[in-house]
Design brief:
This protein has eleven helices and no strands. It has about 220 residues and is mostly helical. It has three domains: about 70 residues, Alpha Horseshoe (Serine Threonine Protein Phosphatase 5, Tetratricopeptide repeat); about 45 residues, no CATH class; about 80 residues, Tetratricopeptide repeat domain (Serine Threonine Protein Phosphatase 5, Tetratricopeptide repeat, Alpha Horseshoe), CATH 1.25.40. The two termini are about 15 Å apart. About 45% of the residues are buried.
C-alpha cells in the first residue's frame, strides 16, 4: 500500500517538531501495516500542525489501507479544503468513495484527478471499475483502454475490459482481451475459464473480483 517517502523539512517551532516526529512514527507504523497505530500518530501530527495537508493525507491513506473508508473520505476532503487543486487528494477520495459504492461521487473525483494529472493511471483504473459497477460498459471500456495505452500488460485492466465487452455482447473483442491476458500471464485460471465460456466450452464465471486495482498510494513524510 505504501510507497516512497519524502523527507520532512526541518521544524521551525516546537509544535512543528512534535508533528514531524509523530509523522515519522506514523510512516514507520504504516510500513509495518499497523494502520490503526499509524492513524493515531498522524492524528498527533495534525494536532501539532492542524493546517498541514500532508498529515491529513497520510492519515487518510492509513484509514483507507485499514478499510476505514468513511474516515479516509473525510480526511481527503479536509486536504482539499486546504489545497483545492491537490490531484492526489481527489484520486484518494475517489478511491475511498468507490470502496463505499458512492460511484457517481467517485467518478467526479477521479475525473478531476485525471484532469489535474493525466498520468494518474490508478485513478483511471478505479474510474473504470466505478463505471463497470454502474454497468456503464462503454465508459468502462474507454477508461480501461486509456490504462492499457499506458500499461499494455495491465492484467486487471485486460480482465475487466474483457468482462465489459462480454457484457456488451462483443465476444470477439472480449476474446482478444482474455487472450492478451493469458499471453501476459499464462495459466491465469479466471481468463482461461472466461475464454472457454466464450468458445462455448465452459459455463461463464461470475463477475470479476470486487477489488478495483492493486492497492496504491502511500504516506509521505
Amino acid at each position: 500500500m505504501l510507497g516512497l517517502f519524502a523527507a520532512l523539512p526541518a521544524a521551525a517551532v516546537q509544535g512543528e517538531d512534535e508533528g514531524s516526529d509523530a509523522a515519522r512514527k506514523g510512516v514507520e507504523l504504516a510500513k509495518k501495516k499497523d494502520y490503526d497505530g499509524a492513524a493515531d500518530e498522524f492524528t498527533r501530527a495534525i494536532k501539532a500542525s492542524p493546517k498541514s495537508a500532508k498529515h491529513y493525507s497520510n492519515r487518510g491513506k492509513a484509514y483507507r489501507a485499514g478499510q476505514k473508508f468513511a474516515e479516509a473520505e473525510a480526511d481527503f476532503t479536509k486536504v482539499l479544503e486546504i489545497e483545492p487543486e491537490n490531484a492526489d487528494a481527489f484520486s484518494e477520495r475517489g478511491k475511498a468513495r468507490v470502496s463505499q459504492k458512492k460511484y457517481d461521487d467517485a467518478i467526479a473525483d477521479l475525473t478531476k484527478a485525471v484532469e489535474l494529472d493525466d498520468d494518474n493511471v490508478d485513478a483511471q483504473r478505479f474510474r473504470g471499475f466505478a463505471n463497470l459497477s454502474k454497468q456503464d460498459y462503454d465508459k468502462a471500456i474507454e477508461d480501461y483502454s486509456e490504462v492499457l495505452e499506458k500499461k499494455p500488460k495491465d492484467i486487471e485492466a485486460l480482465r475487466r475490459r474483457g468482462f465489459a465487452y462480454v457484457s456488451k455482447g462483443d465476444k470477439e473483442k472480449a476474446k482478444e482481451d482474455f487472450q492478451a491476458l493469458l499471453k501476459a500471464k499464462p495459466g491465469d485460471e479466471d481468463a482461461t475459464t472466461r475464454l472457454k465460456a466464450l468458445e462455448g466450452k465452459a459455463a461463464a464465471p461470475a463477475v470479476p473480483a470486487a477489488s478495483p486495482a492493486a492497492a496504491g498510494g502511500g504516506a509521505s513524510r
